[in-house]
Specification:
By secondary structure, the chain is α/β, with parallel strands linked by helices. Helix content is 36%, strand content 18%. It is built from six helices and seven strands; from the N terminus they run E-H-E-H-E-H-E-E-E-H-H-E-H. Helix 1 (15-29) packs parallel to helix 6 (176-194). The chain is globular and about 50 Å long.
């Protein structure tokens, strides 16, 4: 079983990285092969340039490697902070360049006017976010845009229907005990999904 793990945070000492390390330890213990990518660490170029505008291929070998490995993933895990209700730009660029036609989705007749067909074989996608916005304010004022983005616009569009997202915070002022508990929750969620045969994965273990 293969897991694709994507980190979008500039600080290698961030809680996003700590969550990714905790998830990786669980996957390794359960015998999964892990494709782990620190987008900032590998200097992933998020810009979709004119020469790549058709978006069916890239001359960037790193992009092509990501494309190959995301199509081989049985489980996808994303780790990033909530910036302005969006992922960091480097992660948005990863979506633009990697989840392209022929990799993430296709149109049966080649026309965007038709219903897209999701191509990813992953049985589930897990997204772990950090935030400094209290959860009640996130829902009441901002409407939880990251949930719609990842669940519907990205993974639902690409054919991954089993989805779970967790949000941890506010990070500012979080105590060591809180951080320890949050990492334990990350490990628990990953273990529950990674321990279940793909055909029996739950639709959602718990909504955030």
């Amino acid at each position: 079983m293969n897991a694709s793990l994507i980190i979008g945070h500039a600080n290698p000492g961030s809680f996003s990285h700590a969550m990714a390390e905790s998830a990786t330890s669980v996957l390794n213990r359960l015998g999964w092969s892990v494709y782990a990518y620190d987008l900032y660490g590998e200097k992933f170029d998020p810009v979709l340039r004119e020469a790549e505008a058709a978006n069916f291929t890239s001359t960037d070998p790193l992009v092509e490697q990501h494309c190959i490995e995301i199509t081989d993933a049985d489980l996808i895990l994303i780790f990033h902070p909530n910036w302005w209700g969006q992922p960091p730009a480097i992660l948005k660029g990863w979506i633009d360049r990697v989840l392209r036609p022929g990799v993430g989705y296709n149109y049966e007749d080649g026309s965007p006017a038709e219903e897209p067909v999701g191509l990813l074989k992953a049985q589930a996608a897990l997204v772990f976010n950090t935030s400094n916005t209290p959860w009640e304010r996130e829902l009441a004022i901002f409407g939880n845009p990251l949930e719609t983005l990842w669940k519907n616009c990205v993974f639902g569009f690409c054919g991954v229907t089993r989805f779970d997202r967790r949000v941890f915070g506010p990070m500012a002022g979080a105590t060591p005990a809180q951080r320890t508990a949050w990492l334990a929750e990350v490990r628990s969620v990953v273990e529950q999904y990674a321990s279940i045969h793909p055909t029996r994965m739950p639709q959602c273990l718990r909504k955030s």
